[in-house]
Amino acid sequence: MAALTEARDTREYACNAERRNLHLAVAEGETIPAGALAAIDENGEAVNASDTDDAIVVAGRAERTASGGESVVIRSGAFLYCNGSGDEEIKRTDIGSPCYALDNQTVGLKGGTNGVFAGIVLDVDEARGEVAVEVGNVSWKTLWRPETATSDPPAACAANMGRLIVLGSAVSGTNIASGATGDVYMSNGTSWVKLN
Asked: CA 9, CA 99: separation in Å to the nearest integer?
């Protein structure tokens, strides 16, 4: 799917997802269409979600169309976005998995080039080609930029719950018994859970 340039009627997915509104200035040179998957750049300004910059944090759905210098409301919650294709396609068996922004209306399973974390897959409507994604509420301070581990990580505990790691090399140890390069793990507070 191509990136949005016009407003989109991005439906909200009915669930108990927390909803918060962020009021941000839009980065110069950027126009964010209403309904687009919006993100925060390294300067704290709103931009379109995309796979072209790994320094952005996906924050939610743009509530109105806004251009550089204007203010936009970005709402966190659960929304229906377009499903990726090919090896990026999200299937019903991927419910509960992380997904990644491919552009400002499309999410994928693998993360394209830069792996920009979009949210957690809540549901998949394969007939409509849509994915329900909870965006902006997950602990993105730890999830959006995973650490690379080249040895057995510390034991999972409450202090590192939600921490995400990607194995930079094969690991065999006490806390991760056997992991291959590229495996992604998240601490659930008691153990390291493989996500891919």
From this structure: 21
Chain segment 120-156, per-residue pLDDT in tens: 899 999 999 999 999 987 544 444 456 788 888 888 8
Question: Quick one: tokens of 5?
Answer: 């340039």
pTM of the model: 0.69
| Interatomic CA distance for residues 118 and 29, integer angstroms | 23
- 76/152 same-domain check: no
Same domain as 165, residue 186:
yes
Do residues 10 and 91 share a domain?
yes
Question: How many C-beta neighbours within 10 Å does residue 158 have?
Answer: 8
What's the pLDDT score for residue 17? 67
Q: Are 138 and 186 in contact (CB under 8 A)?
A: no
Whole-angstrom distance, CA of residue 77 vs CA of residue 194: 25
Q: Cα dist. 69→25, 27, 33, 155 in Å? A: 6, 6, 14, 45
Domain containing 158: what range? 146-194
Specify the number of domains making up the chain: 2
CB 192 within 8 A of CB 166: no
